[in-house]
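Fill in residues.
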């Protein structure tokens, strides 16, 4: 059964799939670093009405599934997260600086996809059929 979120003025279900890549695709993410990156995400996300649903990593990128609210400023959150996590990871894991000699941990670009709910074609058909007599 689908359970919708709500606030004072709206009902919603907003899932996002975020993929962030390490600068120069350096292979620096291990389980410890991934766990710390996840912890930082969980600390910052409530400030933006975002909640982590799933997290996983490869050596050079992370995949994040999160829920948001209509008032979530997603791009501001992603920038705040990338800045804070980059600073903290390089401070707590100084060996990373050998592979990432500049100030950045993350690539500037990222991939953000909406996900969840019905497939696009089903939604299109539903909208197209509105007002039709059955």
């Amino acid at each position: 059964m689908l359970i919708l979120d709500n606030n004072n003025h709206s009902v919603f279900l907003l899932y996002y799939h975020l993929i962030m890549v390490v600068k120069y695709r350096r292979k620096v993410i291990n389980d410890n670093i991934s766990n710390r990156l996840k912890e930082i995400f969980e600390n910052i996300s409530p400030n933006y009405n975002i909640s982590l649903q799933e997290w996983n990593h490869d050596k050079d990128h992370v995949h994040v599934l999160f829920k948001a609210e209509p008032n979530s400023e997603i791009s501001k959150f992603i920038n705040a997260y990338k800045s804070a996590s980059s600073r903290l990871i390089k401070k707590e894991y100084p060996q990373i600086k050998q592979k990432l000699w500049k100030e950045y941990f993350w690539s500037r670009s990222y991939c953000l996809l909406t996900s969840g709910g019905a497939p696009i074609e089903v939604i299109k058909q539903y909208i197209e059929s509105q007002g039709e007599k059955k």
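The chain has a mean pLDDT of 92.
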